[in-house]
Please model this.
Amino acid sequence: MRLQPVYRTILALDAVGSTAGTNATRGQIRERLYEVVEEATQTTGPFVDRGDGMLVLLKDVPKTWVITDVVPQLKNVGFPIRVAMHAGEVHRDKRGYFGEAIDLTCRFVDAPQTKRALRLSGATLVSVVSDDIYRSVVCQGYDGIDSRAFRPLGRVRLGRRTHLGWVQPAFSAPILGNGAVENTTSTATSKYSAIFSAR
Model:
């Protein structure tokens, strides 16, 4: 098989707590997740299904737009989610998409540090960007992105290497079926400062 790499911006999403529900609940969560992602990204794919989560592969989009517009909209999904963002070369065969860049994005969204950040923030969404995204986009002074609001998440291992991630400020929105949740963005950011200064 001759591999033909193509460059994509990658989002990995994971719905938190979905395994505690019934299959009917899982179906509702999946439907809502895809609905919000399609609206936020203004596309219907390609998506890669991950059961209670998904991968989104975006072609020819500004990464600044993903950070400032797409990710904040994902808080409207109605249940807690974790999001990770990276970019790199991906491949496709008859079974789907694969590649190191995809693997790393999944490592970030599933990392214990990411789960801990969401749990301790009290927010409904936490987002992590790779060090590549942080240095090439976040730190470059683009409108709407404050690099001072990002905190080092810690490192994840992929193969023989470790990779640094950076956590964005947390976002909060109402939880479906559980009443409104107070918007705690500023509070959550303060909590992140305390969490990561103590690491």
Helices lie at 23-41, 63-73, 100-110, 112-121, 131-136, 185-197.
